[in-house]
Each structure stands twice: as C-alpha cells, then as structure tokens.
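# nightly structure sweep
# worker-07 picked up a monomer target from the shared queue
# config: single-sequence mode, recycle default, output format = structure tokens
# input follows
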Amino acid sequence: EIGGAVVFDGSGSSDADDDPLTYSWNFGDGNIDSTQNATISHIYGASGTYTVTLVVSDGSDSSPADQTSVVIMAADLELSIAVSEPAPNLGTAITYTITVTNNGPGAATNVEIADLLPSGLIYLSNSPDRGAYESGSGIWNLGNLANGASATLAITATAGESHCGIPIVNI
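# output follows
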C-alpha cells in the first residue's frame, strides 16, 4: 500500500569466511540504500510494480544481483455526504452524515477528510465510528481504512438565521 512500510529480508545471505556483509538495496523507485543490516524497510510513494535488487558484499567479493518484484496498490476512496434536512427552519437540528468507502484495491493509510459546516449552521456535536473529528478545522482523521471498509461520521448542527429555509449546499 502507498505510504506503508515494506520489509525486505536478505538474512538468507552468508559468507563462507564469516566476513561482515554489506547489503546494497535498489528499491526500483530511484532510492538506494546500503546497510550492515540484513533486514530493511522502505516506503513507496506511488502505486506501481517495482523491481527490487539486492547485492551482498563481504568487502572483497559481491554476490550476483538478486531481484524480486513488489506491487504497491493504491486505494480508491469514495465519499458521500447526506443531510437529514436539506432546507431547515431556524433552530432545527440537522445531521450531516459523511461516509467514506475504500473501493481498493489497496488499503488507505493516514486518511483525513476535510469538511467544514456551511456558514450559518451552528455546530453541536459529532459522532465518528472511527477516528476523531475536529469541529474548528473540519478535519476528520480516521487513520487507516482497509480495502472494502467504510467509516461514517455524523455531525449535528442547528440552522442559524442565515440558513432558515435555504437549501444547504456542501461541496
């Protein structure tokens, strides 16, 4: 998944003389790392298929390059917003229901949805089924969302004078 750490393990490598080994990793996305550790993690910033190459060296000889492919999948998030009363009267309580669904194929990480209430509505409360909503900024931080999973946030507000009987538009 994009933004998630992928762990690579070269611990099956050995040296006949028990010399210390250096592991040179080419992650296939322009990033290269050399380390004394056989296990390393890498974070990919875009979806795609990457060819990862490992060359192990004991300081005098290097192994032939070993390669594997890793597929990083993106998430397709679908957002829907519903309002319980589209043209409320003064003081009428309304509920915004925001639902986000991950249509895959990958998991979504560090998901944040930004949605401020339209002006003229007075915030009362919120109830997310996961994560936390900050009413001042309008940001709902719901963390990770697996392929096929959904999350819902209900925001309760009342209509102020500037919104009496006027249809609510929230983009």
